Amino acid sequence: MTNMLEIRWHGRGGQGAKTAALLLAEAAAAVGKHVQAFPEYGPERMGAPVVSYNRISDSPITIHSAVTSPRYVAVLDPTFIGSIDFTTGMPHDSMLLINSPGTAKELRRRMKLQNDSIRLYTLDATRISEETIGRAIPNTPMLGAMVAITKVMDIDELLKDTEGRLQRKFRDRPKLITGNLAAITRAYEEVESQ
Q1: Type and span of the H or E element at 184
Q2: Per-residue pLDDT tens digits for 115-151
Q3: Residue-averaged pLDDT of the chain
Q4: Measured between alpha carbons, how far apart are the two ends of the chain, in Å?
Q5: DSSP 108-150
């Protein structure tokens, strides 16, 4: 990776958009990348819109402003479709990842997305999280899918770093740790493109 990778995460408070950006940055830093991860949101409350960002580079990052032209965008909540233009600022040859049980073709029609230079990926991250973690928290499946799409690191590197962080936070809840790691792995394998 020679260029800086920029990612925008859309979600609602409680879905883990901020946590996904932080976990990705921490894992990327652990493999020697230079990183930034930061949220942008109004009053903090469950269910309110949240936007988080990542910058990841092989070189030091000297930009300290909002991400305005992300090549990658992740949407954790499909209920935003129709009310937010996720493609704002996305350059040509960009990738949009949406948590949805629908196909990329269906979502492209529903969003009236006519820009063929934006590749659309779908993943039912909510279902994966319910089946592996036991709760509808789509952030770790979306994290696995984002690594599959960006190829910013190997899945094993992501799993190793994330496992260490989850063990420190949830050492008394091993099922939560194994569930999140399973969610990341499944999403990495199941993400689909148009």
Answers
A1: helix 174-190
A2: 778 999 999 999 999 999 999 999 999 999 999 999 9
A3: 91
A4: 24
A5: HHHHT---TTEEEEEE-HHHHHHHHTSS---HHHHHHHHHHHH
Domain CATH for 53? 3.40.920.10
Cβ atoms < 10 Å from Cβ of 70: 24
CB 190 within 8 A of CB 128: yes
In this prediction the pTM is 0.91
Please spell the DSSP secondary structure of 68-108, one letter per residue: -S-SEEEES-GGGBTTB-TTTT--SSEEEEEE-SS-HHHHH
Domain that holds residue 136: 5-193
- Give the pair of three-digit tokens for residue 6: 């920029």
Distance CA 66, CA 136 (A): 29
Contacting residues for 12 by C-beta, under 8 A, at least 6 apart: 46, 47, 48, 49, 50, 76, 77
Q: Name the domain count of the chain.
A: 1
